[in-house]
Amino acid sequence: MRYWVGNGYSESYTKFVNEILPQIKNGLPVEITFGPDSLCSVCPHLKNDICDSQERVMKFDKAVIDYCGMEEGQTVHWNDMFKLVSEKIMDAGLFESICGDCSWAEYCH
Fold it and tell me: Helix H segments across 30-71?
């Protein structure tokens, strides 16, 4: 969500994220979870509570959470998460090893 541009998703998902993301950036706390969450609720890849990209998404999410020293169930705020990702991943030169094979990686620079 750090570099969200809304390309390549369904209209309903893009609308939902565009509505919730400003709230998150303005202090709405977020709970770290591995698996479908409220952002996934309108995603076209979620079918019967299962993400058809779950394995790939989990790989990226787990690496970010591990490198940032966070845990599932932890509540974080956008600014804190943004700072951790900047310091622990981007500034540390780990982006390519974590996200290099993501189809959206080109938007994250």
Answer: 54-67
CB 74 within 8 A of CB 32: yes
Residue 29: phi and psi, rounded to 5, are -65, 150
Interval 52-85: pLDDT, tens = 988 888 898 899 999 999 999 999 998 999 999 9
Per DSSP, what are the bridge partners of residue 47? 50
How buried is residue 89: exposed, middle or buried, by Cβ count under 10 Å (0-12/13-18/19+)?
buried
Dihedral sign of CA atoms 13, 60, 87, 108 in order: negative
Q: What is the pTM of this model?
A: 0.80
